[in-house]
UniProtKB/TrEMBL annotation:
SUPFAM superfamilies: YjgF-like. Pfam families: Ribonuc_L-PSP (PF01042). It comes from Flavobacterium zepuense. GO terms for molecular function: deaminase activity. Belongs to the RutC family. This is RidA family protein. It comes from the Bacteria. GO terms for cellular component: cytosol.
Length: 126
């Protein structure tokens, strides 16, 4: 059985998908990009973009009763691998290293709305 997760503290989906789906005790989040909950695109430094992505992800996790400590897998899509260290610093500031999830980071040709970073996560909620 699956449960659709929605919060108004993260951007409304811009297509036919949910912010997250809880299947059993496993939470699958959709990728978050640097949109504010009001739908405004955060344009500025890669750090500002990444912070908005992580704030969105935090809101989605909380809506499902989870935290970053519950995340077991993260995927980061970036438009420029030269931004890896800056993105990693912001991303890492939200995590407890003791519970850091498995992760991959991939450079892609293009992301929705031409943003520079998108992150999705999988969490297990006990």
């Amino acid at each position: 059985m699956k449960k659709i997760i929605f919060t108004d503290k993260a951007p409304v989906p811009i297509g036919p998908y949910s912010q997250a789906v809880l299947a059993g005790n496993t939470l699958y989040t959709s990728g978050q990009i640097p949109l504010t909950p009001a739908g405004d695109l955060v344009i500025g430094s890669i750090e500002d973009e990444t912070k908005q992505v992580m704030e969105n992800m935090k809101a989605v996790l909380e809506a499902a009763g989870a935290t970053f400590d519950d995340v077991v897998k993260a995927t980061i899509f970036i438009s420029d691998m030269n931004d890896f260290a800056k993105i990693n610093a912001v991303y890492g500031s939200y995590l407890n290293e003791e519970f850091a999830p498995a992760r991959e980071t991939v450079q892609v040709a293009r992301l929705p709305k031409d943003v520079n970073v998108e992150i999705s996560m999988i969490a297990v909620i006990n």
